[in-house]
Amino acid sequence: MKCTFCGKEMEKGTGKLVVKADGKILSFCKSKCEKNSIIRNPRRVAWTEVFKEQKQTKKV
Ligand SMILES: [Zn+2]
C-alpha cells in the first residue's frame, strides 16, 4: 500500500488508515503526511512522489 500523500510504499501494519465520509480510504505513512494532506496539495509539496512525477513529466 502506498501513502496517499507522499506516495511512498509503506509496510503492512504501519502508518494510519483514514476512511472518509464519502467512503474513500486514505493511508498515511506518518502523521506529517496526514496533517499536510488536509492543508496542502501534494503536487505542491517537494517531498512527495506526485511532485517528482510531475516534474519528470514536464521535462518530457
Ligand atoms: Zn507519506
What name does the CATH topology carry? Ribosomal Protein L24e, Chain: T
Largest sheet: 2 strands, antiparallel
Which stretches of 5+ consecutive residues score pLDDT under 50? none
The count of β-strands is 2
Rg calculated over all Cα atoms: 12 Å
Q: Helix coverage percent of residues? A: 25-40%
Secondary-structure element series: EEHH
The number of distinct helices, counting runs of at least 4 residues, comes to 2
Arithmetic mean pLDDT: 93
DSSP strand content: 5-15%
What would you call the structural class?
A: alpha+beta
Main sheet: strand order: 1-2
Bound molecules: zinc ion
Q: Please write the CATH class name.
A: Mainly Beta
- Count up the domains: 1
> Whole-Å distance between the termini?
28 Å
Principal-axis shape: globular
